[in-house]
Amino acid sequence: MSTASTARTRLRITVWANPDAPPRTWELTEDPPGGTHPRPDAAISAIEAAKHPFAPVPADAMCTQIYGGPARATVEGTWRGQRVSASYDKRNGCEIARWKALRAVLDA
């Protein structure tokens, strides 16, 4: 990884286990992986491995109607110089897949 591309990474991850739970919040930086996230190396690797990690589920996607639980999360900030603002939950199969792809980020 080059310093120029990764020095501009600063993400704020906020996770709610359920609607009544207080949020857990971490900061994630890169090069070297750090911040307050408990597993920054794994979180950076998960983002790199995910296909379009911050993109929402397309409006026309066919998703299984399976409920994965009340947890929800947001990721906001900058990833390698690009602004990021993404929301995650487990309300259907597509959203569960997005969560699983970033498990190391969201379930720290």
Give the key terms.
alpha+beta, 5 strands, 25% helix, 29% strand
Protein model, in words:
The structure is a single chain. With 108 residues, this protein is α+β, with helices and mostly antiparallel strands. 25% of the residues lie in helices and 29% in strands. The chain is built from four helices and five strands. The chain has helices spanning 3-6, 40-49, 93-101, 103-106, and strands spanning 10-16, 24-29, 34-35, 72-79, 82-89. The protein has a five-stranded antiparallel beta sheet, covered by helices on one side. A hairpin with a 7-residue loop joins strand 1 and strand 2. The longest helix is centred in the middle third of the chain and has 10 residues, at 40-49. The two termini are 23 Å apart. 20% of the residues are buried. Mean pLDDT is 93; it is low at 1-6.
- Biggest sheet descriptor: 5 strands, antiparallel
Mean pLDDT: 93
Tell me the fraction of residues in β-strands, as a range: 25-35%
Q: Order of SSEs, N→C?
A: HEEEHEEHH
Number of strands: 5
Poorly predicted runs: 1-6
Oligomer: single chain
Shape: globular
Q: Span from first to last CA?
A: 23 Å
Total helices: the number is: 4
Strand order of the largest sheet: 3-2-1-4-5
The level of helicity is 25-40%
Radius of gyration: 14 Å
Which structural class should the secondary elements be placed in?
alpha+beta
Question: What is the secondary structure topology, with strand pairs?
Answer:
Elements: H1 3-6, E1 10-16, E2 24-29, E3 34-35, H2 40-49, E4 72-79, E5 82-89, H3 93-101, H4 103-106
Antiparallel strand pairs: 1-2, 1-4, 2-3, 4-5
